[in-house]
Amino acid sequence: MNQFARLAIEAGPLAAFFVANSQAGIMTGTAVFMVAITIALAVSWRLERRIPIMPVVGAGFVLLFGGLTLWLQDDLFIKIKPTLVNLLFAIVLFVAHVTRRNVMKRLLGTVLNLSDDGWRTLGIRWAWFFLLLAVLNEVVWRNFATDMWVNFKVFGIMPLTLLFSAFQAPLIMRHQLPDEPAESGPAA
């Protein structure tokens, strides 16, 4: 799948949430988000015959906390979802760092070929970043109106994540290993 399609599948549900919230409020936005993320997972499966773990975890949280939001008619649940997801990712990466397990390599090893030190450094950086996102989400939803929180979720978290990812390029380049040559058959 090309990068544009992947971005559309990953960002599409968030865009649908933003539009629905701006037109009809947080409850409708939450319902649309739940439907859109389910469709995105189905499309991802259809195109690749697999679904990466991060979107599955994210969708699970959207469905759980979105369902609680709608069932209890309380937007608290959809607002704390990003905090809990980011805390979960941070905890997994911090624990992996302490136990010297290479979670980042498992997640991104088909895309990047880094030294073990590079993977460890990348993992701890992402752990701190996820923790920062959790704190920022808490500050915004607790101190600003719901529409401002939605704007932050769409126009704050995504750009911050893209910017943070871009800043990892020097680390990735410094620790990138050469691709292993393909095995050739016997010489003729």
Automatic annotation (TrEMBL):
<comment type="similarity">
    <text>Belongs to the YciB family.</text>
</comment>
<comment type="function">
    <text>Plays a role in cell envelope biogenesis, maintenance of cell envelope integrity and membrane homeostasis.</text>
</comment>
<keyword id="KW-1003">Cell membrane</keyword>
<feature type="transmembrane region" description="Helical">
    <location>
        <begin position="84"/>
        <end position="103"/>
    </location>
</feature>
<dbReference type="InterPro" id="IPR006008">
    <property type="entry name" value="YciB"/>
</dbReference>
<protein>
    <recommendedName>
        <fullName>Inner membrane-spanning protein YciB</fullName>
    </recommendedName>
</protein>
<keyword id="KW-0472">Membrane</keyword>
<feature type="transmembrane region" description="Helical">
    <location>
        <begin position="148"/>
        <end position="167"/>
    </location>
</feature>
<feature type="transmembrane region" description="Helical">
    <location>
        <begin position="52"/>
        <end position="72"/>
    </location>
</feature>
<feature type="transmembrane region" description="Helical">
    <location>
        <begin position="24"/>
        <end position="45"/>
    </location>
</feature>
<dbReference type="Pfam" id="PF04279">
    <property type="entry name" value="IspA"/>
</dbReference>
<keyword id="KW-0812">Transmembrane</keyword>
<keyword id="KW-1133">Transmembrane helix</keyword>
<keyword id="KW-0997">Cell inner membrane</keyword>
